[in-house]
Amino acid sequence: MKKERGRRMTNDMTSGSPIKLIIRFMIPMCLGNIFQQFYNIADSIIAGQFLGVDALAAIGSTGSLIFLVTGWLNGLTSGFSIWVAQWFGAGKLDRMRHYIAMSVYICVGFVVVMTGGLLIANEPILRLMNSPEHLMGDISSYMAIIYAGLAVTCAYNALAGVLRALGDSKSPLYFLIISAVINVVLDIVFIVVFHMGVEGCGYATVIAQGISALLCFLYILKKFDVLKLKKEDFHFSMSTINKLLGLGIPMALQFSITAIGTIIVQGAINVYGAVSMAGFSAAGKIQNIICTVFVSFGATIATYVGQNRGAGKMDRVRKGVYLTQAMILVTSLIMMVLVHFFGEYLMLIFVKASETEVLKAAGIYFNTVVWAYPFLGSIFLYRNALQGMGYGLVPMMGGVFELVARAGIVFLVAGNTSFAGVCMADPAAWIAALIPLIPYYFWIMKKKENR
Question: What transmembrane ranges does the database entry give (predicted)?
Fold first, then answer.
């Protein structure tokens, strides 16, 4: 009875209107992604307003590096949650719990190795990124704190991923809202009251993330009987580990390969100085918030496809992807108009109106990339649809295509042309990523239809 009661608390996406299920799941996901981004954004806003442009540039320049590190953990745990969604959709709850237990072993191992290795390699990595010498101390201290808190970052991603795999996208949102508010309060206390500088932003971020992970864990213990693990669930199985890694590693690599491309671009941007760094990073954060709807559609379709693939309902998979593509195209047009007309005003969140050169740099970036939003949104759709069906290699290859395109643009134009030339790396990467994804998706669906 407890198992059934726990199962009824989840959101079964294998029946009912696909568009209603997708939208109902996506909206909390979107809000949750916004609040998750808010950690680093809040740091940038408060640093920019109270500490100045150099502090904004220091924290902003870490965005691509943080994406590399946390993206690996996010991709890894997202891969694990696909298996959870598939076993849940198939109604095999014992297998689902066993896969969750094995993922705990993997997560602990990766966190230990990554934390130690990144703390040792902190400054060499920053020098490879052409970080300005006068900002090196602040950037290094901030990143060391972020690395030390990777355990709580991984814990939240893993726990929230399990909840979403079972169709619960609302609970992680509530916990993120709480921790985001705490993050802002701690930012102000550490920077304005205790004058801790950039390091205060790092401590605030880690503490807030730890609170969101703890809330997720306590909620699962109290509310979800189907997720209560037993001793036998932790019986070590190398075959299960291999299956988890078989999907988790390609998804982690896909995140990391994309992040490496953004690091290459950031390194090229750093050459243009603190003003361009500040404008580029602030504009990127605004774009990430606006386009988080694409990320949310992707995460939603991964859960939707995973559950329906597990239930053997490929007709619902096809229909869900088709409807989501239509919604992404409409959303892209709205975002393009929003950024074109209001992007400069949104920049005032980060810097004062008197910082005209920073605002100009941000405007150049927006004008260079805004037309390519439909391509960006489609990446998340087809990448996550394939991952939801259990295919990890080709989505990872999409990341490789992104990396090659970004690196190619940077090597061609960096130092030889304007700041706008480097900004073209993003649209080029978004278009390139779709080259393997779209044909492979339709080939897979045709293949399953023939069966």
Answer: 21-39, 59-87, 99-121, 141-166, 173-196, 202-221, 244-266, 286-305, 326-350, 362-382, 428-445
> Is the CB of residue 216 less than 8 Å from the CB of residue 156?
yes
Burial of 332 (0-12, 13-18, 19+ CB in 10 A): buried
Q: Please spell the DSSP secondary structure of 329-372, one letter per residue.
A: HHHHHHHHHHHHHHHHHHHTTTS-TT-HHHHHHHHHHHHHHGGG
Query: 348-370 in b/e burial notation, b at 16+ Cβ within 10 A?
Result: eebbeeebebbbebbebbbebbb
Q: Which tokens go with 298?
A: 């992707």
Cα(277)–Cα(393) distance, rounded to whole angstroms? 34
Least confident of 263-277, 310-324, 335-349, 422-436: 263-277
Query: Are the CB atoms for 144 and 184 separated by under 8 Å?
Result: no
Q: State how far the Cα of 413 lies from the Cα of 189, in Å rounded to an integer.
A: 43
Taking the C-alpha atoms of residue 300 and residue 293, their distance in angstroms, rounded to an integer, is 10
Q: Which residues contact 62 (CB under 8 A, 6 or more apart)?
A: 40, 139, 142, 143, 146
Beta strand residue intervals within 215-321, DSSP E = none
Tokens of 287: 């774009």
| pLDDT of residue 138 exceeding 80 | yes
pLDDT at 432: 95
- Nearest-angstrom CA–CA distance, 79 and 77: 5
What is the rounded distance in angstroms from the CA atom of residue 126 to the CA atom of residue 384? 31
Backbone angles phi, psi at 444, to 5 degrees: -65, -45
With a cut of 60, say whether residue 51 has pLDDT above it: yes
Closest of 273, 272, 266 to residue 415, by C-alpha: 272
**What distances in angstroms separate CA 105 from CA 71, 199, 234, 415, one per listed residue?**
19, 31, 9, 46
For residue 78, the one-letter residue type is S
pTM here? 0.71
Structure-derived torsion over alpha carbons of residues 258, 261, 263, 265, reported in degrees to the nearest 10: -140
**Rounded Cα gap, residues 165 and 13, in angstroms:** 10
Average pLDDT of the chain is 85
At residue 451 the predicted structure's pLDDT band, cuts being 50, 70 and 90, is low
